[in-house]
Amino acid sequence: MKQTIKEFLEYVKIRNQGEPEFLQAVEEVAETVIPYIVKNDIYYGKNILLRMVEPERVVMFRVCWVDDHGEIQVNRGFRIQMNSAIGPYKGGLRFHPSVNLSILKFLAFEQVFKNSLTTLPMGGGKGGSDFDPKGKSDNEIMRFCHAFMSELFRHIGPNTDVPAGDIGVGGREIGFLFGMYKKMKNEFTGVLTGKGMSWGGSKIRPEATGYGTVYFAQNMLETKDDSFKNKTVVISGSGNVAQFAAEKSIHLGAKVVTLSDSSGYIYDPEGIDEDKLAYVMDLKNEKRGRISEYVKVYPNAEYTAGKTPWGVACDIALPCATQNELDDKDAETLLSNGCICVSEGANMPSTKGAVEKFHKAKILFAPGKASNAGGVATSGLEMTQNSLRFNWTREEVDTKLKDIMEDIHDICIEYGKEEDGYIDYVKGANIAGFVKVADAMLAQGVI
Ligand code: NDP
Q: Of these residues, 90, 126, 248, 357, which one is catalytic?
C-alpha cells in the first residue's frame, strides 16, 4: 500500500512542480483515500483520484487598475474550477500578496471534499489575486474589485461557478464584485455569496464559518461527555472566522484568551468577553486596525509581536488565521499544556507533523474541510434562498447550520472510527467527501 501511495504522489509531484501547498493537501488525502480505493472494487482501477487532482479548468488573468496616486498597478487574477461532478463550482476568493497557483489549487482541492461533506449540491473551486488590500483606500479597493470582476464575470454564473469571500475578501469586497458582475451581465442573480442582507445575503452567513467550527468542536467534545463550559480557548486570527469562533465560544460558556493577526498575538488572562470582542470587531472590520491596539484599551492584556498564540495554555485550540500556522513543535506545546481538542477554522492551518502529533496523542482533532464547512454550507443555503427568492430567519439558518455540522460529524465517525474507538476525523472526512464525488464522476463517465 505504501508503495502505491508513494508512486501516486511522485507522479503528482512531477506534474505539479513548485506547488508545495497543493502537494501537501493531496498527500493528506491520498494517504487515507488510496487504501479505501484499493479495498473497494467500484473505485479501483478507474484512476479516479488522479482525475480529481487535475483541475477541470484554471483561469489566470491580468488585472490592471489605477491607484490613488494615478499610478497603474498590475495584479494577477485566478479562478481554479476544480470539480463540478456534484454541482456548480463553489469556493471563495482570496486577496493576499501570497496568493499563487499552489495555494489556490490546495484550497480548491480541499473545497471539493468539504463541499461534498456539507450534503449540498456544490462542486469545488477557489480563486483570488495577489492584490494586497492592506493600507488601500476604499476607492482603491473598489477600483481593484471592479477590474477583477470585469474579467472574471465571463467564467462564472449562478449555475456555473459561485464565488464567495476568504482572506481579504469580506462584505465590502463582495459588494463591489457583485456590482460589477450585475453591470456586465445585466442580471441580478445569486452569483456570489456573502452578499449584504438587503440584496440577497443570508442571515448567519458572516457568522457561519466561526460558529460551525465551534459547533463541530462541541460535537467532538460530546463524544467524551464534555462541553465548552468553563474551558479555556486559544484562537488565532482576528478576521471573520476568528471573530465568530470567539463569539460562539463565549456564548457556550468558555473563556477565550487570545486572538492574533499576522504581526503578533494578544493574551488576555481575564478573558475576551462580549464587550471586548465588540471592540475587536470594530477595530478590525471598520477601522481596519491591528490587534496590537487591543492592549492600549485593555492594559491587563499582553501583546507579543511576531509570534503565534500556541504557547498559551488552553483546553481547546481553534486555529482560524491561515495555512501552516501550527507546526509540530506548536502541537507538542499545546499537548504538554493539556489541550484536549483542536478544531480548524482555517484551511490546513496544522502542518502534517502537527496532525501526526495530535493523532498520536489521540486528542480530538478536526481538519478544516470538516470543521470549517459551515461557511460554505451557509453559502449553499444563500444560493437556495436566492433561487427561491425567499429568506429564512436567523433562527432557521442557525438550526440548519447546526444540523449540517452534526451530519458532517456523524459521517466522519462512520468512515473514521478506528478499531480501538478513536475517531480519525481526517480519514473520516477524506473518505466521506471522496465517496460522493467519486460516485458522481463514475456515473457521468470519462469526461
Ligand atoms: P480574514 O481576512 O477575515 O482574516 C484573516 C486573519 O488571519 C487576519 O487576522 C489575518 O491577519 C490573519 N492572517 C492572514 N494571513 C496570515 C499569515 N500569513 N500569518 C498570520 N496571520 C495571518 O479571513 P477569514 O477569517 O475569512 O479566513 C481565515 C481562514 O479561514 C483562512 O484560512 C480561510 O481560508 C478560512 N476559511 C474562511 C471561510 C470564510 O467563510 N471566510 C470559510 C472557510 C475557511 P492580518 O490582518 O494581519 O492579515
A: 126
